[in-house]
Amino acid sequence: MRGSIPAPGPLTRRHGGNTSCVELRCGEQRLIFDVGSGARALGETLRDRGGLEAEIFLSHYHYDHLQGLPFFAPMFDARNRFRVHGPARGGRQVGTILAGQMVPPYFPVTAEEVFLAQVDYRPVAESDVVELGDVRVRALELHHPGGALGYRVDFRGGSVVYATDIEHGSPADGRLAGFAEGADLLIYDAMYTPEEYEGPPGKAGWGHSTWEAGAAVARAAGAGQLVLFHHDPARDDLALAALERRARRHWARTVAAREGLTLSVGGARRRAR
Ligand SMILES: [Zn+2]
Ligand SMILES: [Zn+2]
């Protein structure tokens, strides 16, 4: 749930330093949103469970959302099967884009050489609906440099929206509020405080949002719990606790994501890393 780059160390021990990776369990289905460095830790919990199947949904391809994939242990087990859903970007499809981060000299081996699991790559775009049994996943294009997809999951009356990386202040805000209408859980990019965003020097155009904008979306959508996500790597635990307290004055049901946080939503469960 950390943004931009991992931030481990004594000052981030409580919330954790790993970048985006969220596991969502819907009955027998296992969905994973983004594979930032948190995917390595998630992979450890899934190691040696042969026959693992999971649906991986990628928001976009900035490093902080991908860097854990080469270290996600279940990829190295031939008994496992994954479907990786991601948007086409720059005329390239998800499989090609992912292969591009595992090539020398950036990485010693290619995905083709070392991923033993069966991996099917699926294109996904705004307005697509992915049906996985009782689970329904929809995608929305977010306002972010180079684009990013937000996802909404509905399962047996419970709903979760994963919306990072996003910058507020565009007509897209209204679309997100509609997309998240009535969601039980809204996971939202709260990288900056309103003061940091406004500046000077300010962060307009950097592609990220604030807890204040997140609370406004939660209110407009009539959402349940707001999960502040994509924390600034420089934000230590004390500062995050203060930020969480401020946000709760605007939207009472707010929690700042931390490593291993597990929340239950109707029939669904999510775990943030
Ligand atoms: Zn990011
Ligand atoms: Zn990004």
How would you characterize the overall build of this protein?
This protein has 273 residues and is of the alpha/beta class. The chain contains seven helices and 14 strands. It has a seven-stranded mixed sheet with strand order 5-4-3-2-1-14-13, with helices on one face. It has a seven-stranded mixed sheet with strand order 6-7-8-9-10-11-12, with helices on one face. A hairpin with a 2-residue loop joins strand 8 and strand 9 (158-163). It starts with 21 loop residues before the first strand and ends with a strand. 45% of the residues are buried. Bound molecules: zinc ion (ZN) (2 copies). One zinc ion is lined by residues 60, 62, 144, 148, 165, 207. One zinc ion binds at residues 3-4, 62, 64-65, 165, 230.
Précis, in short:
With 273 residues, this protein is of the alpha/beta class. 21% of the residues lie in helices and 27% in strands. The protein contains 7 helices and 14 strands.
- Helix/strand/pairing class, anyone? alpha/beta
Please write the string of helix (H) and strand (E) elements: EEHEEHHEEEEEHEHHEHEEE
Overall pLDDT, averaged? 95
Q: Within the largest sheet, what's the order of strands?
A: 5-4-3-2-1-14-13
Distinct ligand kinds: zinc ion
Helical amount = 10-25%
Residue windows where pLDDT falls under 50 for at least 5 positions = none
Distance between the termini: 6 Å
In one word, what is the shape?
A: globular
Number of strands: 14
Sheet with most strands: 7 strands, mixed
**CA gyration radius, whole angstroms:** 18 Å
Counted by DSSP, the helix tally is 7
- The percentage of residues in β strands lies in 25-35%
